[in-house]
Amino acid sequence: MGAVSINSVRKSFGHVDVLHNISVDIAEGEFVVLVGPSGCGKSTLLRMIAGLEDISAGDISIDGRIVNALEPKDRDIAMVFQSYALYPHMTVADNMGFSLKLAGVPKADRRKRVEEAAAILGLTDYLDRLPRQLSGGQRQRVAMGRAIVRKPAVFLFDEPLSNLDAKLRVHMRSEIKQNHQRFRTTTVYVTHDQIEAMTMADRIVVMNAGRVEQIGSPLELYDRPANLFVAGFIGSPAMNMLSGRLEADAFVAADGTRIALAEHRAAGAGRAVTLGIRAEHFALDGEGLAAEVLTVEPTGSETQVLMRLAGQDVVASFRERVTALPGQTLGVRPMAEAFHLFDSETGVRI
Amino acid sequence: MAMQTTLRRRSSSAYWLYLFPGLFGFLIVVGIPFLMNIGVSFTSWRGIGMPKFVGLANYARLIADSAFWMSLEHTLFFVVAMAVVPTLISLLVASVLFDYISVRFGQGLSSFFRAGYYLPQILPISVAGVLWGWILNPHGVLNMILEATGLGGLVGNWLGDPDLAILSVGFVMVWLQIGYSLVVFMAGLARVDPSLYEASELDGAGFLQRFWYITIPMLKPEIFVIGLTTTIAALKVFAPVYVMTNGGPNNATLVPSFFSFYHFFSTVRVGYGAAVATAQTAITIVLAAVFLWVQSRQTEEGDHD
Amino acid sequence: MTDTSVPAAPGPTDRNIPRGKRGALRWWVLAFLFAFLAFMLAPIFLALNNAIKTATDYATNGPLALPQSFTVEGLLGFWSYVDFTSKIWNSLLLSAAVALFGVILSLLNAYAIGVGRIRGGRATLVILLLGIMIPQESLVYPLYYLAKSSGLYDSLWAPIIIFTVLQSAFGTYLLSAVMTTFPHEILEAARVDGANRWQILWYVVTPILRPTLAVLATFFFIWTWNEFLIPLVLLVSNANQTVSVAMGALSGQYVSQPTITAAAALLGITPTIIFFLIFQRTLTKGVVVGAVK
């Protein structure tokens, strides 16, 4: 149980449309991440699934049942909020058991389920504490515990890690993932952090300005971004984008630099295109293109070089240790088989 | 589409249920009596039987009634005694406590003074009236002290002399009001960043300069709130006059509230009393509106800076 | 850093450290504040000082002298003369009932306006505020008339109802502002957890706002205790009067017996002093009025 189907859903506040015709099908047990810049509508979509926002048009069904008119509590969902939204006056146990209490679950039963969840989350020793006596990570766990206790059909997460420091964030990321593997509960997870999306998701929905840009597995999005937005949003460091013109067998940059393509592309010759090259798709090659080194950032495992190539700033990362100094010229060869070409006007992948 | 709209309206209107008891009570206790009072002000009524409609006769009489004009003059005096003087005193005291005492002697002493100055403010006014009546009556404590200390020449009939009575009542009101504004100003200063004072001290500003250039501007919102609430309170003064002087001697401390009360329950000219009360209400609302208008203009100007 | 040569520039930590022996000014300021405090509290101490004297002692040694005699005759006499026990009881009942009902009513109103964001919420607030500004004189006669015709005249219920409504107008204003800033994610979490509106108010909002509600109740209690005009008009019989009204009725009665007046004043002051000692922190923080901005 727990499939979620979002069918041509729209949301408008007054005359402003914040979501345009969104359709996403989420399979039972799947971990789907909604990702996009702030204001793209991902949280609104999540809140519509939760029943916290009205649906202006279209419908959402959970488990094959249309839930548009149902109250949140009748949708068989649980939600983890960005601020955790713990009840400050209730102990951890009461926070986790509140929904059961409202549902009329007998006290002993309630206690048992809270203790089970607490054991899973390592909160057993904290059950009698108040939220303010807990650390950020523990609060996060209580928020999850509150959701787990209910054994819902769908878990909804609204940027749950954005209030944690970087280290704890990585840790909680894997905890959430482990819990998902344990319970296999359908999960919809909202974040603006593409790394979170990449590392956690079975499937990612990339959203921008109220539309879905692409839906796919993390590596699909990374390897074959459908358009310029996804290409720029997914991956770190961000994909290098060179603008220029397409010729039969080469890309010609604005300053006239020719970069050979892997395959012959007579079809689109002459049109304005953007060439996307990921940072790791450059090789050191004395015979290659001449790039002026701007900065060199060694991390140990790799070296990131910001350089000027074909009149544009480009970031390349090399497994080798680069000893070049800023101002010097470096010979590099873009790997033609890993190029991404986009129509500059429409942004669509060619 | 239609279904969702109705759903939403239903969910918002469900909250009206929570407002219902409050609004019903407000209607019974304020709304209806207020309208009844206005209605009665156009009648001649002795409190029993049917009120007789007399149009604007009560208001015409009111405008010609020198006692009414006198009561308004006294109200003006009470605005000074309740809004202006206590505000000035407590601004200075709050500033000394915040910027001097708590810095040099610690927070505890400053809180102690604040609590002490505040105490009179929460006394029931009738109790304060009895207390001061005891002190100020011709054979009272003050005159005894004056005589005992050789200042017999200053002995006065503080509440019985028409020239002194209003000053005495006004003085008691100052005594009562200081604590109120002091506490609000202290609360306002608590949210001021202390580094502001430190920085100005480094710039060489003395206490008076800090008072003028930091304390007063920072407390502007509080000064407005205090100004508004105490002015409205001054327009409604009743208990101190009732308890200490009964409006006398010779109407020397007559105020509108006492004036209408007198006609409601002593002369039982209810229609006339209602006209007085209505006029008083109108003045209050107009004054409050002016206050709020000035304030909103001030904040707007602040935004433009 | 170019100015390091300037001598003795007072550091920013200077404020926290007493500046020591820099002149005698600080002692003058302190002395002045104590003198001002003595002036403010003098009437109260004078009442205490003279309430326990005999009349002869007062007449011979004056009001400033410490008591040479000790008697509780004045206190007891006044107590039994006005039946102070019943006055205290009436005042307590009235004030406590208004504090409780006033807070409940404010809570309900503010929940609809601050959390429910009902249409017309702001307009409602404006009307309530106007209601607070209206002088009680323009309500008092109709209230007197309505109380008489509904049989609530000379019953504590009449002022209980009236003050519950009047105080809650202010309470609604204050709590609405608080509830507007209530973290909405907590409300949403409660909705997801399955709480209906009533349960959200009762299990989530009320416990979280408890400190604010306690402050509000304290002020309602004190304000109601001090109310004068309406109890004066509505509670006529001796058995139903409040402390405040009983005190007002005293005016000028005991001019010839100053120690009894002092005793009466002391008895009127004492409950307030007790409340003051209990609630001092709440009362002097200025929270309630500070919120009206």
Protein model, in words:
The complex is a heterotrimer of chains A (350), B (305) and C (293). Chain A has 350 residues and is an alpha+beta fold. Chain A folds into 2 domains: 4-233, P-loop containing nucleotide triphosphate hydrolases (Rossmann fold), CATH 3.40.50; 240-343, Nucleic acid-binding proteins (OB fold (Dihydrolipoamide Acetyltransferase, E2P)), CATH 2.40.50. In chain A, 24% of the residues lie in helices and 35% in strands. Chain A has helices spanning 42-50, 92-102, 107-121, 136-148, 166-183, 194-200, 218-223, 228-233; strands at residues 4-13, 16-26, 31-35, 57-62, 65-66, 77-80, 154-158, 186-191, 203-208, 211-216, 240-246, 250-253, 258-260, 272-277, 282-298, 303-309, 312-318, 329-334, 340-343. In chain A, a hairpin with a 4-residue loop joins strand 15 and strand 16. Chain A starts with a strand and ends in a 7-residue tail after the last strand. With 305 residues, chain B is mostly helical. Helices cover 76% and strands 1% of the residues of chain B. Chain B has 14 helices and 2 strands. Chain B has a two-stranded antiparallel sheet with strand order 1-2. In chain B, helix 5 packs antiparallel against helix 8. Chain B is globular and about 75 Å long. Residues 1-21 of chain C have low confidence and may be disordered. Chains in contact: A-B, A-C, B-C. The interface between B and C is large, with 107 and 103 residues.
Short description:
The complex is a heterotrimer of chains A (350), B (305) and C (293). By secondary structure, chain A is of the alpha+beta class. Chain A is built from 8 helices and 19 strands.
Helix and strand composition category of chain B: mainly alpha
How is the largest sheet of chain B built, in terms of strand order? 1-2
Estimate the helix proportion of chain B, in percent.
over 70%
Average pLDDT, all residues of chain B: 86
Global mean pLDDT of chain C: 84
The total count of helices of chain C amounts to 14
Q: Per the principal axes of the C-alpha atoms, what is the gross shape of chain C?
A: globular
The biggest beta sheet of chain C reads: none
Shape of chain B: globular
Q: State the total count of DSSP E strands of chain C.
A: 0
- The counted number of beta strands of chain B is 2
Based on secondary structure, the structural category of chain C is mainly alpha
